[in-house]
Design a protein that fits this description.
Blueprint lengths: L4 H16 L24 H17 L30 H4 L12 H15 L3 H9 L8 H17 L3 H14 L6 H15 L2 H17 L5 H22 L2 H14 L6 H14 L3 H14 L6 H14 L3 H13 L1 H4 L4 H21 L3 H13 L4 H11 L1
Helix pairs in contact: 1-9, 1-11, 2-7, 4-5, 4-6, 5-6, 6-7, 7-8, 8-9, 8-10, 9-10, 10-11, 11-12, 12-13, 13-14, 14-15, 14-17, 15-17, 15-18, 17-18
Length: about 400
């Protein structure tokens, strides 16, 4: 049985709710990209031991497997903008809203010390931050102060790239405060750390746990936790995508597109869906999705690559005339777009021109190949000129 079979059922239920609008996200709500991160539902002692044992060899082995194909430039595989910011640079107060308020009076000194530890961490004085925060974990300290200090200690370890230590502290946090509203976000952060460590299976299990824990906890701020659920779904899709598991990635990206959630960067989700379909050599779907993308994302920096993927898919479907059109449209864009992002546009223009023209040449369509080479060399040919030439040849 597939180890992800059961969690997929959970994800499917969430996607269905999102699509129906029950978990719809409104514009103006707290941005997903600024949301703090999280981890898994309360780990059992056995599972903690298993996770810790799995992490150590993963650190030695390195990241997950590379994709099955290489499509340049590398920027196109950068993290999705909906993904949370870099670990350790997140608004902790937002994550702890609802349980962060402390009584005044004698607790003010503890709050001041907690704030000092946070500021030391932000200023990258990590050893001093750890020392300041650890002093708040002493016996007799108020429980709420200890909870906040424990979370800050995990962030301090994460900022220092001590990922195993950070995971251990986060696991302790979840075990100790299993009913706290911050648990889903801690689970999300754990998942992102595991992915950074190259332990993708544990990362995915944590992202699924974000969704299940959000259901189990009695949460007041539902809008905020809906965003966490959405973020977890995006992270699952991105993990499959970065692992080169394009079939699973395409499935999740397709579901995300259907939710039409305002907080999603729809252009990036659609782009990664198109790339996944292209890697899977699903040419028909690639053509359909690429056409939609180009129709609504005219100013996207990913337009040249999408047009190249569209031209390639059309060529493989033996729709040569349409493929030729896309190549020439891409080459025509040079004057207007090269100034905005010259390296990207020039790369995809040259790659599209060379690959499609070479294929046409090998197939004996010398006129079409010559026309593409002419545009690449002189930049004065257009698709309208190509159509006129085709009509003259008929």
């Amino acid at each position: 049985m597939n180890r992800f079979a059961m969690p997929k059922k959970i994800a499917g239920a969430f996607f269905a709710v999102l699509a129906a609008g029950c978990l719809g996200l409104r514009a103006g709500d707290l941005s997903v990209s600024n949301a703090p991160l999280a981890a898994l539902a309360p780990d059992s002692a056995a599972q903690k031991s298993t996770n810790a044992a799995a992490v150590a060899p993963a650190m030695a082995v390195g990241g997950g497997k590379a994709g099955s194909a290489s499509v340049e430039p590398a920027a196109s595989t950068s993290p999705n903008p909906i993904t949370a910011p870099e670990p350790g640079h997140l608004p902790v107060d937002a994550m702890l809203s609802g349980s962060n308020a402390l009584p005044s009076g004698h607790l003010q000194d503890f709050q001041t010390q907690l704030d000092l530890g946070r500021e030391q961490r932000r200023q990258k004085n990590l050893p001093l931050a750890a020392q300041t925060l650890s002093s708040l974990m002493a016996d007799g300290m108020p429980v709420e102060i200890q909870r906040l200090a424990l979370f800050e200690l995990a962030l301090t370890a994460q900022d220092g790239n001590e990922f195993v230590k950070a995971q251990q502290i986060f696991a302790q946090y979840i075990h100790t405060y299993s009913d706290d509203p911050s648990v889903p976000e801690v689970l999300l952060r754990q998942g992102l750390i595991y992915r950074q460590m190259g332990v993708s299976s544990l990362a995915i299990s944590k992202f699924y746990a974000v969704m299940s824990s959000a259901l189990k906890l009695k949460l007041d701020n539902m809008d905020y936790y809906k965003k966490l659920v959405l973020q977890a779904q995006v992270e699952i899709a991105d993990t499959f995508y970065l692992e080169g598991r394009y079939e699973e990635a395409a499935d999740f990206f397709s579901r995300l597109v259907k939710t039409a959630a305002p907080q999603l960067d729809q252009a990036q989700v659609q782009f990664k869906l198109i790339r996944s379909l292209s890697f899977l050599t699903n040419h028909t779907e690639t053509v359909a999705k690429a056409g939609v993308f180009l129709g609504i994302n005219t100013n996207s920096s990913d337009v040249p690559e999408v047009r190249f993927l569209l031209a390639s898919a059309l060529k493989k479907l033996d729709r040569n005339r349409e493929s030729m059109k896309q190549v020439l449209l891409l080459l025509e864009s040079q004057q207007e777009n090269v100034r905005k992002n010259p390296e990207t546009w020039i790369y995809w223009q040259q790659r599209a021109g060379n690959e499609i023209a070479n294929q046409l040449y090998k197939e004996g369509d010398y006129l079409s190949a010559l026309q593409i080479y002419h545009v690449m060399g002189f930049g004065s040919y257009s698709y309208r000129s190509y159509e006129r030439h085709q009509q003259l040849c008929l």
